[in-house]
Write a structure and sequence with these properties.
Elements lengths: L1 H33 L13
C-alpha cells in the first residue's frame, strides 16, 4: 500500500511542477506582449 502512495505523491508533484512551469512561461510571454519595454535577451545576456 505504501508503494502506491509514494507513486501517487511523485506523480502529483510532477504534474504540479509541469503546470507551474507552463504557467510561469505563459505569464512571461503575456508580460512581454503587454509591456513593450521588456525585451528578450540571449543566453549571453547580450541582445
Amino acid at each position: 500500500m505504501q508503494q502506491f502512495e509514494i507513486g501517487v505523491v511523485v506523480g502529483e508533484t510532477a504534474i504540479y511542477a509541469y503546470l507551474l512551469a507552463i504557467t510561469i512561461l505563459g505569464l512571461d510571454i503575456v508580460y512581454a506582449i503587454v509591456d513593450p519595454r521588456v525585451k528578450v535577451v540571449g543566453s549571453q545576456g547580450i541582445g
